Amino acid sequence: xxxxxxxxxxxxxxxxxxxxxxxxxxxxxxxxxxxxxxxxxxxxxxxxxxxxxxxxxxxxxxxxxxxxxxxxxxxxxxxxxxxxxxxxxxxxxxxxxxxxxxxxxxxxxxxxxxxxxxxxx
Length: 121
Prior knowledge:
Layout: H1 2-11, E1 20-26, E2 32-37, E3 59-65, H2 71-85, E4 94-97, E5 111-117
Antiparallel strand pairs: 1-2, 1-4, 3-5, 4-5
């Protein structure tokens, strides 16, 4: 999916302004997600790549250090914090990939932000 995004941006002469992300709309037996890149210039749809927008507003953000296989632990920690602090999730969470695995081969050094939008208090 990221390759398709990179190709669509390249065709339009647009460069990503930040780290790639994945936003999860549904998980379980079937996973519904979108993969994207932050851009400062609006893009046009290109095949399966469509423009979208991440929500603005308050968010709970945790930085996960380590391999992607252990991201579930960070999600669980954020969900516990939301419950304990009285905050409520306000939409689908997403991951922002701070470390590029092709530039840093050691998964123990990978950093990923786990972001949950929250309802304003």
